[in-house]
Amino acid sequence: MFPIRLGQLANLVGGKLVRGQPRTSIQHVVYGSTKYLKPGVVLFLKSSQSLPYRLQELKSKQSAGVVASSNVAHLIPHHHPLILVSSPDHAIWKLTSWQRNQSKALFIGITGSAGKTSTKEMTASILSQKYRVMKSYANNNIFACIPGNFMRLSPIHQVAVLEMGMASLGNIRKQCLYARPSIGVITNVGEAHIGSLGNSLNNVARAKQELINGLRPGGTLILNADDPGSKRLKTKGFRGKIITFGINRPATIRGKKVRFCQDGMRFEVEGCTYHIPTWGKHNVYNALASIAVGKQLGISIANIQKGLRTFPVPYMRLQPLKGVNGYTLINDAYNANPTSMIAGLQVLKQVAKQRYSVAVLGDMNELGTWSSSGHRKVGAVVAHLKPSRLITVGTQAATIAHSAITHGFPSRSVQSFSRLAPVSAYIRKTVPQGSVIYFKASRKLTLEKAVKPLRGRGSIG
């Protein structure tokens, strides 16, 4: 973070330093969690059900200080410096604003119904070939995560790449008020989280529109030319530069000669070949969006190629793993919606080729009234792509099985489980050696628990 001392911090957040030395240097700030507390780190102690546990942990931890409200001040062990505030929650946002105001970095916001994390990682990898880059941590992408991400900003950073998710309308708008991005990327507009947005695709588009409206004057907007949902976005009044990316339709950055290979995907843009170490045409779209950002910020073709070739594939996103019995496991279990699940099924078909293939598909949550139609849509695609076997997990996912059978998929090749526990044992007992097995479900199901007992040693590629 930016240099600040304990006394300055107290003044900045409108608090009072009642214990400790004003000139104590602060290296980092954490909000709520005591996990990373150590000398040089200040804890903003928020009120929550876990407060008794946090207070207990403070007894054995060291810190540069604790920011707390007066009603818990007497519970803070005396070896911790102490700043009293009326509300630690309000105080952390004051510090967040200060951090942003100190930074001269160019901010990039990335949102979309699918592909946000991969696009963020690709973009950060490309830009880091030339700039000092701060990227949002893991999947910390909603408004409540802004303080944690902004505390990672420091004077060395020239670019900040922020993944912007949302749980409701207004979430991205509030993120933009703090971030003030100069470049905005919208990967696509689809069904993800539609259940929390009134079951309306128009509302999903409205939520993504908040990034467009939140860009700095004269900013750059990067949009998917092939995505039908993105046509719902309103760009007529946008006063800035618009860059498009795509494969099927004319676009500023257009991918051609897209092909699967053993170690990922290859494609061409304007005669130059690019490689990404992960599978799926949908990931080529993510790469095209990242190329657009790189070109906008003056990254050479060679460095864009290197950035894509070496980007860290996000955990549980089409993660190839060696399994027992010679299995190839594709762990795509982090989250799911119909668009991303269908994209994953297409990857399964391409990777398996002539090998025995198994699709293990679980419930897709947060689809609201679209849940039944979304699961049926996936089932129809299963019947079309014809994996060797379909395994569903969860009550909603049973609709995938029913739909697949209705569309001609053989019922003898379908197995449905209402719960997760028996899945891995069933696979190990019944699925032939050397098979390719794909796992996909919403986060709540924790489908990766079925992957773990099937793992061999190492990753593939």
TrEMBL record:
Domain Mur ligase central stretches: 110-293
Gene3D superfamilies: Mur ligase, C-terminal domain, Mur-like, catalytic domain, MurE/MurF, N-terminal domain
PANTHER family, alphabetized: UDP-N-ACETYLMURAMOYL-TRIPEPTIDE--D-ALANYL-D-ALANINE LIGASE (PTHR43024:SF1)
GO process annotations (BP): cell division; cell wall organization; peptidoglycan biosynthetic process; regulation of cell shape
Alphabetized InterPro entries for the sequence: Mur-like_cat_sf, Mur_ligase_C, Mur_ligase_C_dom_sf, Mur_ligase_cen, MurCDEF_CellWall_CoF430Synth, UDP-N-AcMur_synth
Catalytic activity: D-alanyl-D-alanine + UDP-N-acetyl-alpha-D-muramoyl-L-alanyl-gamma-D-glutamyl-meso-2,6-diaminopimelate + ATP = UDP-N-acetyl-alpha-D-muramoyl-L-alanyl-gamma-D-glutamyl-meso-2,6-diaminopimeloyl-D-alanyl-D-alanine + ADP + phosphate + H(+)
NCBIfam families, A to Z: murF
Chain ranges of the Mur ligase C-terminal domain: 316-443
Name the record gives this protein: UDP-N-acetylmuramoyl-tripeptide--D-alanyl-D-alanine ligase
EC class: ligase
Organism in which the protein naturally occurs: Kroppenstedtia pulmonis
